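User: My notes are a mess, but here's the protein and zinc ion's SMILES. Can you give me a structure?
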Amino acid sequence: MWESARGVGGLDEGSTEPRGRSDQNRGGQARMMLTLREQLQDPIYKKWFSTPPREEPSAAKSPPWWVYVQKKPGGRWRRAEFTSWKAGYKYIAKNIKKYNDMALVHKRQEFKPPVVRHMGKRKYHLPMAQGHVWCGYCRRLTRFSYFKKHHALPKWANSGERRCNICGIRLAAIKRYS
Ligand SMILES: [Zn+2]
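Assistant: No problem, the inputs look usable. Here's the predicted complex:
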């Protein structure tokens, strides 16, 4: 069921390591990414995360969801397909303490961050997290880095652009929120 990084795109050990660039401080704090467990300490995000999302109908045949798991900090990401949000959510709820980090990722649909009302106005709820960006596919804050090889992508897709550390989407391709 679980694909290793190698199984996905013929990637080597260490493929989860972002390539060193100015924003990437190898071995330093700068590379640390907030885990899902840490992000779920925020009650607004937690409520949003545990609410079934509105999914757009799709003609695609393959299951729409991935669950990504990372066993240890800095370790390899693995993923498995899930046919429904509910099944993926249940798996995460059950195993959130078992793994260092996880994500419930939609393959085809980008989701907006939680919306809150502030002084009568609607605004996106994005806790301040240095160097983190909302990935609408991962449905969480992630980091975007340069990869020589990315665990979620075949080799030909490595284009020297910043990509999501979990799902591999290009930074240039996602919607940005502030
Ligand atoms: Zn992502």
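The longest helix spans residues 85-95.
User: Great, I'll file this with my notes.
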